[in-house]
Amino acid sequence: FSGPFTDVVTTNLKLRNPSDRKVCFKVKTTAPRRYCVRPNSGIIDPGSSVIVSVMLQPFDYDPNEKSKHKFMVQTTYAPPNITDMEAVWKEAKPDELMDSKLRCVFEMPNENDKLNDIDASKSAPVLNTSKQDGPMPKPHSVSLNDTETRKLVEECKRLQAEMMKLTDENRHLRDEGLRLRKVAHSDKSGSPTALALRDNGSNSLPSLLVVIAAIFIGFFLGKFIL
Questions:
Q1: Helix (H, G, I), strand (E, B) or coil at 4
Q2: Which PROSITE patterns does the record associate with it (predicted)?
Q3: Residue at 90 is within a domain
Q4: Residue 102, SS3 per DSSP
Q5: Is 1 exposed, middle or buried (0-12, 13-18, 19+ CB in 10 A)?
Q6: Is residue 32 a part of any domain in this protein?
Q7: Residues 171-220: pLDDT tens digits?
Q8: Domain tally for the chain?
Q9: Is there a contact between 9 and 3 (Cβ–Cβ < 8 Å)?
Q10: 84 and 158, same domain (yes or no)
Q11: d(CA 80, CA 125)
């Protein structure tokens, strides 16, 4: 029997009849008040087996106390047309009885198993509490957010500087286009339409770059504010 013995502990006995005749059995114990046996008697057919449940009642276990509890399984061939089991045992002769004796052994769980159970019970409330309260913010995650914010701010400043640079280049190219127009007009070379196309071609690319830069700045500023 394996403890702890604060509740009913059950052990099963398997009785098998290897003969070609019916066998009557009876289970006895030296401590009938401490055990409940089901079934405690019966008949086993030839080649069949029966499971007997032995239930030990709760008690205060003392490891220094040696167990003196014993069981005995008695068997005898069943007479033909049996009707009264008690009469069979009363009328059976000693040489017709067969018996097997068993000694009870009580075992407590290993001390290491106890420590593991205690550690598991201590850790369980901590896990449950963490699930109920939810995950706590970690300092590492906060530092990552600060780093990402700094990167966005730096990227925004870089795009602003790039936009200012493109604006200056746009102004410079526009002035250069006006100067070339005056030179072409003074030299009377080329048509006004060609000069207009040249002027528009020189001004369209910087303006487009300025618009693209403004879109990137708006995107990063919106992400930073959110």
A1: coil
A2: MSP
A3: yes
A4: strand
A5: middle
A6: yes
A7: 888 888 788 877 777 765 555 554 454 555 555 555 555 556 566 566 55
A8: 2
A9: yes
A10: no
A11: 64
Cα 165 to Cα 163: distance, rounded to the nearest angstrom? 5
pLDDT tens-digit map of 109-152? 775 455 455 444 544 444 443 444 445 544 444 444 567 677 77
**Residue at token pair 């600060």:** 146
Are residues 202 and 169 in contact, defined by beta-carbon separation less than 8 angstroms?
no
Q: Which domain holds residue 90?
A: 9-103
Beta strand 41-44 pairing with 23-29? antiparallel
Helices 192-225 and 139-187 pack at an angle, to 10 degrees, of 170
How far apart (Å, rounded) are the C-alpha atoms in residues 206 and 169?
Answer: 7
For the chain, the 3-state helix, strand and coil shares in percent, each to the nearest 5, are 50, 20, 30
Q: Could you tell me if 14 and 80 lie in one domain?
A: yes
Condensed to tens digits (0 to 9), the pLDDT of residues 35-82 reads 999 999 999 999 999 999 999 999 888 887 778 899 999 999 998 888
The reported pLDDT for the residue numbered 24 is 94
The greatest distance separating any two alpha carbons of the chain, rounded to the nearest whole angstrom, comes to: 148
134: left (phi over 0), alpha (psi -120 to 50) or beta: left
SS3 of 29, please? strand
Closest of 56, 52, 53 to residue 8, by C-alpha: 56
Cis check for the bond before 4: say yes or no (omega within 30 of 0): yes
3-class state of residue 103 by DSSP: strand
Which of 78, 103, 128 marks a domain boundary? 103
Q: How confident is the model at residue 29 (pLDDT cuts 50, 70, 90)?
A: very high
